[in-house]
């Protein structure tokens, strides 16, 4: 027992100098990736809706809204930046849990760094702690949290955002514990959207981010919470997951960093679809294939829950439905004909797609997703197998055990920068993307966090034209 207290004590005592260099390097990589998601995500129509609501009903002057530059309260700025971050299914994933830690950790840490007037080194430490706390809680409850219908980022995100705030405000172990304890009362999130749709999923990380920031601010004010919020009889693990492994909360804490298992997403859709894209790319590298040559595509996955999550929707009603539809997303890639980050399933591809395009719908109907039962597909593991039957009688097979971005098949630092540029080059002034890359590469040397924050903002005079060009 006392797992919550152990995590709080570790958070309060975390020193960047004690964090291994490879962990710091990965964290910087994830910060850059999530900055790109925020800046690009701010231009989308649904993000504009969130922005309009918060700007009209909230106030404050402490923290900056990415892209637009407004100054709001820390929780409201964190909400918007997180909503932008997760706006188009492009933010990172910890697939083993599974959860999306970056879209919570980075916006929460940045908003609280401004509020606390922290430096770049403190920001980096806060991001690392936030990732670790979120992942450990989600992993302790995996896979039962999502099996029971909870969306892990909304459940575990408040704890991660609170941990970031605790570090940036210099909390001791007792205050850090209260921040986590208060955060637990904000946990929520259901995944019924995978069955009957709805756009609320796009603000799931934002709900959690604002809640965790608020929890830290409440703890600063002296509000307290239950010290066994994770492990208790009425605590998070038992109530939300039912079945869980408390050892996963603290095993290797301080020596093993689950952050190293986080995967940046090269494609802007559910991560469980990605391996099928990689398999299709590899198959077409070997044998050229046009969409009109496809008679049938069978994608083999490794579990019924995965099949349910990405195989239920064949003809999506909206963009989000397309991003959770393996058949439709494969159809997009087949008709686009490209590969990798630029293969037709990127950030700018989904918002511009016509989900009723008869050619795409016809191709999507040819794609089936099934659970692999034959030993021939045993190496599917975290990836996918693909079998393509062509109109001229060919059968093309390919297996990708691990999709691009996972630790077993990682994106390099340069590939992450390539993705970042694909996100922001269409909307940022020339030279600004490289300034952001340079600032993140030298994050520990930044003394005034405002120098970094202002790079995430587009000059007001350019906002309207850039946004119009992007969408």
Notes on the protein architecture:
This protein has helices at residues 3-13, 21-41, 45-57, 74-85, 102-116, 120-140, 144-147, 152-168, 173-184, 193-196, 204-220, 236-241, 247-250, 274-286, 304-311, 319-323, 326-336, 349-352, 358-364, 413-424, 432-441, 449-453, 460-470, and strands at 63-64, 71-72, 294-301, 367-371, 384-390, 395-400. It folds into 2 domains: 3-261, 2-methylcitrate dehydratase PrpD (Orthogonal Bundle); 271-400, 60s Ribosomal Protein L30, Chain: A, CATH 3.30.1330.120. It is of the alpha+beta class and 471 residues long. Helix 2 (21-41) crosses helix 4 (74-85) and helix 4 packs antiparallel against helix 11. It contains 23 helices and 6 strands.
Question: How do the strands and helices of this protein lay out in sequence?
Answer:
Blueprint: H1 3-13, H2 21-41, H3 45-57, E1 63-64, E2 71-72, H4 74-85, H5 102-116, H6 120-140, H7 144-147, H8 152-168, H9 173-184, H10 193-196, H11 204-220, H12 236-241, H13 247-250, H14 274-286, E3 294-301, H15 304-311, H16 319-323, H17 326-336, H18 349-352, H19 358-364, E4 367-371, E5 384-390, E6 395-400, H20 413-424, H21 432-441, H22 449-453, H23 460-470
Parallel strand pairs: 3-4
Antiparallel strand pairs: 1-2, 3-5, 5-6
Helix pairs in contact: 1-9, 2-4, 2-5, 2-6, 2-20, 2-21, 3-4, 4-5, 4-11, 5-6, 5-8, 5-11, 6-8, 8-9, 8-11, 9-11, 17-19
